[in-house]
Amino acid sequence: xxxxxxxxxxxxxxxxxxxxxxxxxxxxxxxxxxxxxxxxxxxxxxxxxxxxxxxxxxxxxxxxxxxxxxxxxxxxxxxxxxxxxxxxxxxxxxxxxxxxxxxxxxxxxxxxxxxxxxxxxxxxxxxxxxxxxxxxxxxxxxxxxxxxxxxxxxxxxxxxxxxxxxxxxxxxxxxxxxxxxxxxxxxxxxxxxxxxxxxxxxxxxxxxxxxxxxxxxxxxxxxxxxxxxxxxxxxxxxxxxxxxxxxxxxxxxxxxxxxxxxxxxxxxxxxxxxxxxxxxxxxxxxxxxxxxxxxxxxxxxxxxxxxxxxxxxxxxxxxxxxxxxxxxxxxxxxxxxxxxxxxxxxxxxxxxxxxxxxxxxxxxxxxxxxxxxxxxxxxxxxxxxxxxxxxxxxxxxxxxxxxxxxxxxxxxxxxxxxxxxxxx
Length: 424
Hints:
Elements: H1 3-12, E1 28-32, E2 35-36, E3 44-51, E4 54-65, H2 68-71, E5 83-90, E6 105-107, H3 114-125, H4 141-169, H5 174-186, H6 192-201, H7 204-209, H8 214-224, H9 235-251, H10 271-284, H11 288-294, H12 298-305, E7 316-318, E8 321-322, H13 332-353, H14 357-368, H15 376-383, H16 391-405, H17 414-422
Parallel strand pairs: 4-5, 5-6
Antiparallel strand pairs: 1-3, 2-3, 3-4, 7-8
Helix pairs in contact: 4-13, 4-16, 5-6, 5-13, 8-9, 8-10, 13-14
């Protein structure tokens, strides 16, 4: 028995309530078990019970052992001054309030169905990443749908916290934050930290001054990445090198000490290519976040992100290394990745922070209009025949896996609760 399981049992009232008595023998009835408290203080608030025909309203505290009351320091805590019932699994001693009066106690040790305890143990002690994988299909679709909707909102809200942290660093400059985040996304997965550091070293207002000057923008990004330090043979990198030396001094760019990496990645993901594409995105747009925020559909944002690196890169993946012709256009898979991980979260965050539901709704709608992610997490769910049709599906499944399954929070999961409830 764990305290969290005991809380779950009490919250759901999954125990035999026939002929209930306190440990001292007084008849007990429960009118309302109380509101589960996720903050500091008693476990359940504003409960209503009757003991020996006397009605009581107040708070309820739960412990595996009654003696845990003292272990947790509740005997000296004013937050626990209005406890009307102490619910325990094992009553190993009486507990007293500040006035020396015994707090009524209820022991659930012999009142909980064994099948519930057995099923819970199976979920908690399994080595499977998805603890309930053998029972998933028994959960009604309506529960899945509502839970996935909540999960995707949860995921967007958690990303909102990250955006808020960035805003605090920029005096709430949304364009600057968007620049940092989209640059980081262009560096995924290996060079994300380096690309963010590069973005932080070049203010978005400086980039705006050079809109339409693709060579200068490229020189800023590639130079800050440390990719213009060689003795080049070709004229193009020499020209970029010259541009960078001039503007580095003019703008006093802060050196970036986070190196970019080329190893173990496809040439199309090389930092040279991604930075060239990022430069073209900046070159083609003005006030990019404002454009994204104003977009009526996800298709409009896709058009903004459909950029191609300039002509030099059609024959190169690295400087001074000629290859066969291939246009370096940002692919749809990468665009979807940027939409899911940067564009949609920041639009949702804008709506949340400014209390404008229209942007939150827009962000969630866009997730439904994008293809789902295909990664090791979503593939696991696919093998279990769980629907993954849109990015909203995949984001909800990622949230479910990371925040519930891997942490064994089955009692806080609608699917876990449905499966446990089915055993009763």
